[in-house]
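User: My instructor asked us to take a sequence, write out its structure as tokens, and then describe one feature of it. I'm not sure where to start. Here is the sequence I was given:
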Amino acid sequence: VSDAAFTIHTENETKRKAEIKKKQREKKLLKQKQQREKEKLEKETREEVLRQQALADQERVKEEQIKIANVINNANNNIRHEKTTEAEAQNKRRQQQARDNAEKVAAVAAREALGGASKLMQQQQQQQQQQQQTVKKTNK
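Assistant: Let's start with the prediction itself. The structure tokens for your sequence are:
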């Protein structure tokens, strides 16, 4: 009788331990699944934040480009309407310097505001240089 009772007790104990291990395994798998879902959500949130920042950066670049284009256009309009006397030639030089300074200030402000948008800024600077060369050729 004692052997049979011991066998039943051993079987019950084995079943109980197996059930505990099964529950621990299920609990561990659930925690892993929850962690993966949490990480996925965090990644999606980071990506959305970066996308929104990129859109905001692009908008700021556009605004800065418009400001710079307006400065250049205003300076170009002023230069076209000037006469060629020595005093007016000196004014042209001053306006050119003011335009150069305004472009530098705007470019610095844009770079500072846009830290991560350097590629767009390089394109903008190339456009400015091309416009300056066109203005210089026009003035000659």
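For the description part of your assignment, you could build on this observation: The longest helix spans residues 2-80. Try explaining in your own words what that tells you about the chain.
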